[in-house]
Predict the 3D structure of the following.
Amino acid sequence: MTTFNAITQKLTQNRKTLLPVAIAAILAGLALIWFGLLRTVTVVVDGRPLTVRTPALTVSGVLRAAGVPSDPANRAQPTQGRLIWNAPLVTVQTAREVVLSTSDYEMTFESAEAIPANLLQTAEIPLYPQDQVRINGAEVDPLEPVQQTDGFVLQYLPAQPITLEMDGQTRTIYSAGPTLGMALEEAGLDLSPQDVVSQDLQTPVDGPLQVSIRRARPVTVSVDGGTVNGLTASTTVGGALLALDIPLQNLDYSVPPESAALPEDGQIRVVRVREELLISTDETPFQVEYQEDPNTPLDQTSVIKAGQNAIYATRERVGYENGQEVWRYSNPAWQASEAEKAIYGYGTQIVNYTEVVDGISIEYYRKISVYYHSYKPCIPNTDICYYGTSSGLPVDKGIIAVSLPWYQMFAMHRVYIPGYGYGVIADVCPACYGQLLIDLGYSEENYDPMPNGWTTMYFLSPAPDNVPVPFP
């Protein structure tokens, strides 16, 4: 009994000694296990790397160790919940708020997906090649990841069918562009300013469209002696001319005509047409009647009544094409006016004038221009001499010979000839008939003639009672 108690007591003492040692051994073992499980893991969160040391055996544990909030919408690689052994890298794409906007509705959800096409597929929206995707209003490639780390608006613009009728063919293009012009540009349709589009290029593409396009064609117009080249989408000749600012005016015409379809070769000829109205006249002179006019000075003429010619007119119409006469039509002549006889008055009023000639003041009532010769009694180079005159006075200086009609009217009239002096009309000059000719007389002894020429003959005052009027 004593031995059993001693043994028991000893065992009790040994137990008290070994318990701390056992506990220490267990703790040491646990510590070894802890440090043995610790590992270094790189956690990339939204592209930002973070290094952590953790004994976690799952991806979720690693993320908790990295301070990444647990969110089922986050996307981790490897996936959350999986055991992690020797994987040194965990990538996490945190979920962002996505506002999906379409033409029919708008919805909001959270997703860690970065590729727009996958987001649309999640929303059960099929994506076609010409559809347009925008992130916060900017067009993006739907197959490229979104670089935005915050929430964003994903806008889906489905391509709309545009039926084109062009060059005699029909085709359909698809576009999500905002306007028709941008849709045509996307389709590679380069339009010239002269092309005609059935709808405005700013028309919104918010539904199916029917559009016809008429391509401009080259046109050459021969006009006004030259050529004008241009482009026009018009289908008629007249429309092409208007487009090139070559309108037909008045009687102008074109080849082909305005209403004709634009020829395949684009060649147009413009013919400028004009007409002229020509009026030619033939006049029959009016007759003149003279009568004395005591209120008009001698040798001057007055118009008592104006005369009028008889006028016969002929009218012609002349047509020109491009400046060349092509036709002419004449109308019968007609009398435009009848002849009316004129009445002229010849002055009978005697007016005395004073003039200084050859330094001498003379008074006269009439003067005329005459051409003069000189003569003497004997004919040169002959033995023939005539010393007498028609008036009976001898041939001498101061004797003036005139034509017979003048002599009959002015015989013995006193005159003055510049450079010759005083004289009297006292002889007849047979060679002076019908002309303004006079002969200046000299005697054989004082024959010193002036050179032949024009001069003025003054009829000296006072005027005789038988002054002839009018002057012959």
In short: The helical segments are 2-37, 59-65, 116-122, 180-186, 237-243, 404-410. Residues 28-36 have pLDDT under 50 and may be disordered.
